Amino acid sequence: MKLFAQGATLDLTHPHVMGILNVTPDSFSDGGAHNTLIEAVKHANLMVNAGATIIDVGGESTRPGAAEVSVEEELDRVIPVLEAIAQRFEVWISVDTSKPEVIREAARAGAHIINDVRSLSEPGALEAAAETGLPVSLMHMQGNPKTMQEAPKYDDVFAEVNRYFIEQIARCEKAGIA
User: Fold this and answer.
1) Which is it for strands 8-11 and 2-5: parallel, antiparallel or unpaired?
2) Secondary structure, 3-state, 73-98
3) Which of 34, 61, 66, 102 could be cross-linked to 43 through a Cys-Cys bond (beta carbons 3.0 to 4.6 Å apart)?
4) Phi, psi at residue 48, to the nearest 5°?
């Protein structure tokens, strides 16, 4: 299987390493260590040199309890980093966002994959993703990023998560995302 986006091909017959690049001041994983363009590019370079073939760039923390950011703030954080990575490295770029405006602008800036922890459930996100023609990565959680750790409960975790993804894939296909 192969993914195609932005004139590039990603061969999925072997594993790939995705490096995570959070450009937020409140990231749970790196504490905001890469939230300037210079630091973000340095970290992307380290990840590429370590073998990453995909760099996932996120401009809004989705840790439980994190504050939401405006569209403008997320664009200001993410787009310069996406453009810099696209200009400097031969890697696939994933954008971690749920906002339709960021999805569209990230595609214009060179992103290859839309990685949405909310599974394109925000108003306009599904349509924006379909417009770009980019592959998508979806995630399951109960609730939203602020509440997902508040006593999640499953009767049959495999069946429930499986059903969720069947429904989400059907939504994507209906919207023209294949």
Assistant:
1) antiparallel
2) HHHHHHHHHHHHHHHHCCCEEEEECC
3) 34
4) -65, -45
User: Could you tell me the two tokens for 60?
Assistant: 């809004």
For residue 123, count other CB atoms closer than 10 A to its CB: 9
Cα–Cα separations (whole angstroms), residue 32 to 20, 29, 111, 129? 12, 8, 22, 27
d(CA 29, CA 19): 12
DSSP letters for 33-67: TT-SHHHHHHHHHHHHHTT-SEEEEESS--STTPP
CB distance 54 to 93 below 8 Å: yes
CA dist., res. 26 & res. 42, Å (int): 19
pLDDT in tens, 84-105: 999 999 999 999 999 999 999 9
For the chain, the domain total comes to: 1
DSSP 116-175: ETTTT-STTHHHHHHHHT--EEE---SS-TTTTTS----SSHHHHHHHHHHHHHHHHHHH
Q: Which region among 23-27, 56-60, 77-81, 159-163 has the lowest average model confidence (pLDDT)?
A: 23-27
Q: Which domain CATH number covers 51?
A: 3.20.20.20
Q: Give the SS3 label for residue 116.
A: strand
- What domain range is 51 assigned to? 2-175
Give the C-alpha separation, 150 to 134, whole Å: 33
